[in-house]
Each structure stands twice: as C-alpha cells, then as structure tokens.
Write a structure and sequence with these properties.
This protein is an alpha+beta fold. The chain has 4 helices and 4 strands, in the order ββαββααα. The protein starts with 7 loop residues before the first strand and ends in a 10-residue tail after the last helix.
Length: 90
C-alpha cells in the first residue's frame, strides 16, 4: 500500500500524520512505540511490540447473537466432516 504524506512543522521539529485506516489495519494505538529504520532512501516504521493475534474465541468473547447452530442448522453437519483445502485449519 502506498499513500502520500506531507511533512509538517510540529513544534521545533517536523512530523507526518499516519492515517487512521493504516493504524487500525496494523492495530497501532495512541502511545504504542514504533521503531524507525532508514533503509537506503526509505523510512520504515515497525511496531516495537507486535500485537498478539487474536483467536476466534477472543474475537467472539462478547458476542451475544444467535449461535451458529441457530443460523445454519442442519447445514453444519455437512461441514463438520469436510477435509481442509487451504489454511482454514490454522
């Protein structure tokens, strides 16, 4: 992904604003530390502490909607014994 940013005056220094969509994509929050590296003519920012990848259990911890059985009923039985075709078992 490439996005043009403008260097602006920020106090006595200079800075750029990172788009919220990029911060959300990388799970970067206010106060998170970033590492800055210069690689040739490029500036590379990397989160100092990579975020832990959430499990499906974590993602659905607060979910209170209908269960998958209620949504899919008998169709679930057909899915239960299927072989994996890609990385869906990871």
């Amino acid at each position: 992904m490439t996005k043009g940013l403008t260097v602006a005056k920020w106090g006595n220094g200079r800075g750029v604003r990172l788009p919220q969509a990029i911060l959300n994509l990388l799970s970067i929050d206010i106060g998170d530390e970033l590492l800055l590296e210069v690689e040739g003519d490029k500036i590379v920012l990397t989160p100092a502490k990579p975020k832990k990848i959430k499990t499906l259990k974590d993602l659905f911890a607060g979910y209170s909607g209908p269960s998958y059985q209620e949504l899919f009923g008998d169709e679930m039985e057909a899915w239960e014994g299927m072989d994996y075709e890609g990385k869906e078992s990871i």
